[in-house]
Design goal:
69 residues, mainly alpha, 434 Repressor (Amino-terminal Domain), two-stranded antiparallel sheet, 9% strand, Helix-turn-helix transcriptional regulator, Lambda_DNA-bd_dom_sf, Cro/C1-type_HTH
Length: 69
């Protein structure tokens, strides 16, 4: 299971979901699902765009969590 730190990163940078969606071209719903950690799949292009926009490596955006059995 992956843990997404988008909400934490956006909070530190004082960014709103609407701003990130507008600036990256990523669908607002996709960002909302990542922000709330409810996304089940995300396009690699979206991940790349987020990492570039937020100026973070992928390892800072996502973290491998424990597997649920």
């Amino acid at each position: 299971m992956l843990k997404c730190h988008l909400s934490k990163i956006m909070g530190v940078k004082r960014l709103k979901i609407a701003d990130v969606a507008r600036d990256t071209g990523i669908n607002r719903g996709t960002i909302t699902r990542l922000y709330n950690e409810t996304a089940t799949r995300v396009e690699l292009e979206a991940i790349d765009a987020l990492c570039t926009y937020l100026d973070v490596p992928i390892g800072e955006l996502f973290e491998a969590g424990e597997l649920i059995k």
